[in-house]
Design a protein that fits this description.
Layout lengths: L6 E9 L7 E9 L2 H29 L3 H23 L3 E3 L2 E4 L6 E4 L3 E3 L2 E4 L6 E6 L2
Antiparallel strand pairs: 1-2, 1-8, 2-3, 3-6, 4-5, 7-8
Length: about 140
């Protein structure tokens, strides 16, 4: 994970929206501090807002339809902070590792830099949503 400190973390592996028992495993995770979370959120907010505003302003030049411009401009202004807030909520980044799928028991590869808690990704074999939560 880019040479940054990774610590073993106890994680519950389960299926999203299921009553099945969850398996507890130790996987590598990098816990983010408040400053790093804010910096990541600010960067994503700035990129999404810039690209959204650029596209909204380019649309007025390419398609001089005021309704498109009037709808896309507020959307770009709202979407940037929303993406920033969703990025700020991520308090850890999962390291690349292998686990068994809770449903089909096939080997799964946890994607590198997967944000959590809870971290979610699909099984490549059965398509179920696998959910990783912090074990307490």
């Amino acid at each position: 994970m880019n040479g940054l400190p990774v610590e073993p973390t106890s994680i519950r592996i389960g299926v999203m929206d299921s009553r099945r028992l969850e398996v507890v495993a130790t996987l590598p995770a990098r816990h983010l501090g408040v400053g790093e979370r804010l910096w990541r959120a600010f960067k994503r907010m700035a990129v999404v807002s810039f690209v959204g505003l650029l596209c909204a302003n380019m649309m007025i030049l390419v398609l001089p339809v005021p309704h498109l411009h009037l709808c896309s401009l507020p959307l770009a202004i709202i979407l940037g902070p929303l993406v920033g807030y969703l990025t700020w909520r991520d308090s850890a980044l999962m390291g690349k590792s292998e686990i068994a799928c809770p449903r089909c028991s096939e080997e799964l590869v946890v994607p590198d830099q997967l944000p959590g808690w809870p971290a979610r990704f699909n099984c490549e074999h059965c398509g179920i949503m696998v959910e990783l939560k912090l074990a307490r």
